[in-house]
Amino acid sequence: MTVSRRTVLATAAGAAAVCVSSTPAAGAAEARTPAPTLRTLRAAADYAVEKVRTVAPGVTAFPVGTKFEKWTYSQNGDWVGGFWPGTLWMAWLYSKDEAFRTGALASAEKLAPRQYDTGTHDLGFLFYPSWVTAWRLTGDSAWRTGAIRAADSLIQRYNPRGHFIRAWGALTDPKNAGRVIIDTMMNLDLLAFASRQTGDAKYLDIAVEHAKTTQRLFPRPDGSTPHVYDFDPDSGAPIGPNTVQGYSPTSCWSRGQAWGLYGFTTMYRRTGNAEFLATARRLADFAVGALRPDHVPVWDYRAPQQPHDIKDASAGAIMACGLLDLSAATGRNTYREVALRLLTALSETCLTKNSARADAVVARCTRNRPAEDGIEISLPYADYYLLEGILRVLQPQDVDRAIDLSTV
User: Fold this and answer.
1) Packing angle, helices 83-95 and 98-109, rounded to 10
2) What is the DSSP string of 123-137?
3) What is the band of 190 on the pLDDT scale with cuts at 50, 70, 90?
4) How far apart are alpha carbons 278 and 287 in whole angstroms?
5) In the chain, N or C terminus with fewer CB closer than 10 Å?
């Protein structure tokens, strides 16, 4: 079933504008999952929740990464501030321990000043797993209002000449004014949320235009993507591919590829645009083909030392969530099978179980290899997406309540 965006907007008064739900019941999902895999994922979830329970009392700001296995923090959340409250929400859904709910709300509240931040594209990462989820799970309209304010800040970064959302830099700073990155695909759902809630199409219209620009320029014929694409900010004319966190403009940074496949699948679910779904499949097929038997992605699929290069488990966790989403959207079980292998591999080879001092759940993540910044450490988004992925398998209806898995 496909409906227009205007039809979707007309239903905006509810907690989620649901036209067709593709979310499987928990029993049906478990019936399609081998028993050994279910045991592995439950054990990983048990470990993750217990680790978060142990560490949470000492977390007073926003984890950004680890140094010698201990979290380092940002007071304002940097670009990752939404993932700690998001992880607490996932832990609450799994355990029903009210301490996690209380902690998620308290942590999210500390992001309040960022509603008005026009200096970053990362407002979706900041506000969707924290404030949008808080509204969906509590019904308190203050969270909804704040998330919409964040969407108002995000759309100020839209360049109407080039039809793109600028990634980095203050609006008054000409540096990076024409720089677009694949990661932004994951920030667009905040705009879709704002349109559903307000009935104002402007947010989703901008998200669609950005996605169309990304779709036109980022994917190569084989389905791989660069991290960056540069534009002339004055004319909006495309200049060419580039990179910051990948090996080169012609390589394929694995986490960026995961952001892209998950983001395009989400945009398909919010719009019914079949071209977005086709693009998600192209990106997914390349990433799946680039995996090695251990199913833990290298940091860049085209770096010269791959497949023997350093790993990025966070790319695997994000990719698993995107593939589960894509399987539900397409009905193709092969994507689900790969996602289960990814989650199993992370659960069996990338958890911090052998360390008594580790604060995080997932190890073997790489933040920025070219800058030699955070090489095989722990990262907060790896913990978040691992739990999201596992709960997509074990408790899909709960994940739907938290982040909205509906499809128009």
Assistant:
1) 160
2) HHHHHIIIIIHHHHH
3) very high
4) 14
5) N
- Respond yes or no: is residue 122 known to be catalytic: yes
Q: Which of 247, 228, 229 has the alpha carbon at shortest distance from 312?
A: 247
Contact, 135 vs 85, CB < 8 A? Answer: no
pLDDT in tens, 199-253: 999 999 999 999 999 999 999 999 999 999 999 999 999 999 999 999 999 999 9
Catalytic residue (one of 122, 152, 312, 400): 122
CA distance 341 to 335: 10
The SS3 call for residue 272 is coil
The model carries a pTM of 0.94
Say whether 285 is catalytic: no
Could you tell me what percentage of the chain is helix, strand and coil, using 3-state DSSP and rounding each to the nearest 5?
A: 55, 10, 35
Q: Which residues pair with 20 in a beta bridge?
A: 407
Question: Could you give the strand order of the β-sheet that contains 179-181, starting from the edge strand earlier in sequence?
Answer: 179-181, 228-231, 238-242
In whole angstroms, give the CA distance from residue 383 to residue 295: 17
From its phi and psi, is residue 243 left (phi > 0), alpha (psi between -120 and 50) or beta?
beta
Q: Which of 183, 300, 325, 404 is catalytic?
A: 183
Our CA dihedral for 78, 80, 81, 82, rounded to 10 degrees, sits at: 150
DSSP result, 86-100: HHHHHHHHHH--HHH
- Please calculate the CA angle 361-46-389 and round it to the nearest 5 degrees: 65
- To which H or E segment does residue 64 belong? strand 62-67
